[in-house]
Amino acid sequence: MSVLVVGSVALDSVETPAGRVTEALGGSATYFSLAASLYTSVRLVAVVGDDFPQRGLTMLQERRVDLRGLEVLPGRTFRWAGRYGEDLNSAETLDTQLNVFAQFDPKIPGDFRDTPVLFLANIDPELQLRVVKEIHGASLTAMDTMNFWISSKRDVVTEVMRSVDVVLVNEAELRQYTQTRNLSTAARQILELGPRAVVVKKGEYGCAVFGRDGYFAVPAYPSEQVCDPTGAGDSFAGAFIGSLASSADRSWRAIRRGVLHGSVVASFTVESFSVDRVVTLQREDVDRRLSELVSFTQIEPDWEKELIDANQYPTEARR
Question: Looking at the whole model, is its pTM more than 0.90?
Answer without folding.
Answer: yes
